[in-house]
Amino acid sequence: xxxxxxxxxxxxxxxxxxIAVPKGTNMIEAARLASVEVPHYCYHPKxxxxxxxRMCLVEMGxxxxxxxxxxxxxxPATGKxxxxxxxxxxxxxxxxxxxxxxxxxxxxxxVDCRNSVTEFLLINHPLDCPICDQAGECKLQEHSxxxxxxxxxxxxxxxxxxxxxxxxxxxxLDDERCILCSRCVRFSKEVAKDDVLGFIDRGSYxxxxxxxxxxxxxNYSLNTVDICPVGALTSTDFRFKMRVWFLKQTPSIDTESSxxxxxxxxxxxxxxxxxxxRQNDAVNDTWxxxxxxxxxxxxxxxxxxVEYSIEGTAALPAVALAKAGGLLRAGSVAIVxxxxxxxxxxxxxxxxxxxxxxxxxxxxxxxxxxKILVSADRNPNVRGALVTGLVSSLPAQQLTELAAAxxxxxxxxxxxxxxxxxxxxxxxxxLAKVPVVYLGTQRNATSExxxxxxxxxxxxxxxxxxxxxxxRLQKFAKAVPGPAGVADDLATLAQLxxxxxxxxxxxxxxxxxxxxxxxxxxxxxxxYANLTASGLLLDGTPWAALPFVEGETLHFKPASPVAASA
Amino acid sequence: xxxxxxxxxxxxHIDEPGYTNDLACYQKxxxxxxxxxxxxxxxxxxxxxxxxxxxxxxxxxxxxxGVKWSLVDRKSGKPIYLIVxxxxxxxxxxxxxxxxxxxxxQLIEGTMISCFANNVKQAYIYIxxxxxxxxxxxxKAIAEARAANLVGPNVLGSAYSCEIYVHRGAGxxxxxxxxxxxxxxxxxxxxxxxxPPYFPAVLGLYQCPTIVNNVETLCHVKHxxxxxxxxxxxxxxxxxxxxxxxxxxxxxQKPGYYEFEAxxxxxxxxxHEVCGGPLPGRxxxxxxxxxxxxxxxxxxxxxxxxxxxxxxxxxxxxGVEDVPMDFDxxxxxxxxxxxGGVIVMDDSVNMVEALANINAFYSHESCGQCTPCREGSLxxxxxxxxMVHGAARPEDAALLKGVADQIxxxxxxxxxxxxxxxxxxFLAKFGDExxxxxxxxxxxxxxxxxxxx
Lengths: 566, 453
Prior knowledge:
The complex is a heterodimer. In chain A, helix 2 packs across helix 3. In chain A, the strands form seven sheets. A seven-stranded mixed β-sheet of chain A has the order 18-17-23-22-21-19-20. In chain A, strands 1, 2, 3, 6, 7 and 8 form a six-stranded mixed β-sheet that branches. Chain A has three domains: 9-106, Ubiquitin-like (UB roll) (Roll); 127-240, Alpha-Beta Plaits; 309-543, Rossmann fold (3-Layer(aba) Sandwich). Chain A has helices at 27-33, 108-123, 139-147, 183-190, 222-227, 317-329, 343-356, 382-387, 400-407, 428-433, 445-449, 489-499, 509-519, and strands spanning 9-14, 17-22, 57-63, 74-75, 80-81, 83-85, 90-91, 102-104, 165-166, 171-173, 197-200, 207-210, 233-235, 248-253, 262-268, 271-277, 309-310, 313-314, 333-336, 360-361, 413-417, 436-440, 452-455, 464-467, 472-476, 536-537. In chain A, 21% of the residues lie in helices and 18% in strands. Chain B has three domains: 23-234, Rossmann fold (3-Layer(aba) Sandwich); 237-346, Ubiquitin-like (UB roll) (Roll); 351-440, de novo design (two linked rop proteins) (Up-down Bundle), CATH 1.20.1440.230. The longest helix of chain B has 21 residues, at 415-435. Chain B has 18 helices and 13 strands. By secondary structure, chain B is α/β, with parallel strands linked by helices. In chain B, a hairpin with a 2-residue loop joins strand 11 (302-309) and strand 12. Classes of the chains: A alpha+beta, B alpha/beta. Chains A and B meet through helix 2 of A and helix 14 and helix 15 of B.
């Protein structure tokens, strides 16, 4: 008998190999754990099971028991319990692991099922992979190389369906490529809670379409493109821009809110082409918002700052830094830090503030949370500022204290790390009173009026970590190089500290983390290199009393109901 | 051997002169007396009677009704629903329509007894969308019955209440598949559900335990409760109890409906004696014995094997004419009793053209949910249509078989079998006609032949 090794595990047999899997695991996942791939189209681990593509058919058997006495029937040949194999193939996606369940995924009967499903899917599918945008990441293409017959027995007319339908502002549909797996329909209904997609007509003429008068325009519509196993749903922004096999994937973090959705940045030769979600079952499953996918456009935006400048005139980096250092050295500095800086940058900002004995304020960004993957706090790393000790309270939207201090003549200069001070409530008159050192990526009213402007890098051009709303420390990597001549943000900050007369600090991640681990207690055990892709959950209890603005989102429940969440 | 006489149990009053479909007429003929008596008995006893009777479902699959009822999850605390499957749309079948049109109260009585036996408080009659007249008749009949306190709250002064609603179907063959029907009744597209986990007996209508029975089956329940399960088994043959209604259509002199004890009449007796044999100057060529999805039989073929008679195994050697019309015998020779729709074809029929017609039906009715049936049914239709209207090729026969063999047993519902069995059996029994059709096509079709689909 096969006894379960742990109460919540059951032993199943995949192609003759016993493996213990959690109870309730479906057979596709169980096979995956046994390193056996069961091909499938309609099944998606984060959606309900539809069971309609029939690609995952496997042979299934259960241990034989005597119906009367319930005692196991043994097979004398093997000395093991006899297995009753079902006469028909079963879909692996809808079959959950039960004790002693056996499946066979490589028998001639199973291969025949896959061959026939592949042939059926291809007879009405355009056979034009070379001009299809999905080529290279198409499940139908992949499985056809394994299970297709290589020639077609189909001599009839193919079905004609609509091409290039605009389902919404960001999604284009080619119905002829659709294999009717219904993943997008289920996603819209179950995850995006916007049930706008469905099938019309019957049989092979079934057509995916949007509900009359509606559009697929919710902020999660591009996830349907990600999960589409074929080239039916494509991103209007990305389609026909670049072959996917030329693209390099870099793990990154979505900076649009404190959810910190894990992302994959797809780039080639220094240009980013798209951003897709990266699976993290504790944060964003396999989803992300559409709004986070266009953030890469700031990299090559017209308002991008690429030059060091003093009073509006381009200057050499060393000159600009020396000028900034001079301003800071004069004392009475106010620092406006950023909830969008990485943990490392915030740590260096803190070091600078400590050396200058300058007060630090942050600017909050609050918007309505959508209860899915965009939270109310639109700064990705406010908790990083708390953890590193840059600030000890939550930021406000307006810099009223700083405004009062300027009016009272207590401030001689302001250092702004990427924050537009006018947007945060300072008047032009107040800004005219004090010289501003501005570090940032985009041009704005503050950079225009600043004494010294030092260009910095976007999240795609540097590496670092963020702490999301769960107090999960997550790292992002550098996808593309920054603009020519622009130094890394950590180097810039370290040089600024030196220019202000402070100590010389490490500016590479490895060395800097040694200092962070030594000085920041919650991060004492962390090294950048050892931080896993799924992140590290920090203890957030020291800040539990703070009135965070986030409401509930996927995989996150606020500790206490928050009045401020819009 | 002469054919036995008809045994009209369900169709006792169908086409009887002077018999109307109103309550007064039904009660004059002893209507609702069985229900009154049944309500005085414990429900479990009624279920036992049905189990004892060996009643098999009349919708097509022939699943034992008592077993179906015993699978219902009664411990969940959820309400149990009963659905009357009146989505009669298997080509060649026209029995339920007669019951609904001419004897609706028989169905209502059978339904109420079944509801009472299973503690069902709400029943739905899901009637085929193309039966608008039947739906109106049923609604009127239910209103009459409700006015007479035979349906509705506190039936006949008892503490038992049960409502019956008529739901007009969505106009698709697949709405007759029980889980597709449930989806349709819930207001969705009639895509059949995957089983497991969605067995109607556990997770049926609104995720509650649900019984889905055919119209004729529920009418039989009334007669079983009337005469007792034991007595009912005396009708018909063992394991094929009760009567069966045969809807004979096609090339016989007297097509129509006939009710006989199950297994007491052979196919030959039914066609030659009861239905008057082939049309003058013609000979019978083929017959589909249980609705268009059943596998076709060719006159002249013989079936040999062993079958159980009582406790013994007996050899049989049957021609098509010798096959007793019951579930098991038809199953033994590789076809099925199905819904009782007997479709007869004589020598004027070209089998390629007949199959083109059947394939057109199934490709039109495939719901499109799962791959093999969705793509396979249309492919087969495109092949047969091309053969009939365009260029037939000798290799089409093998291709058709190849496609059909890739469908059954791999789909969500039984439609996969339904759409592939005709092609498989036509090819197996009339393969030469398919191989030679490109030659046949060169000759002109007779002037009086029907237009091709």
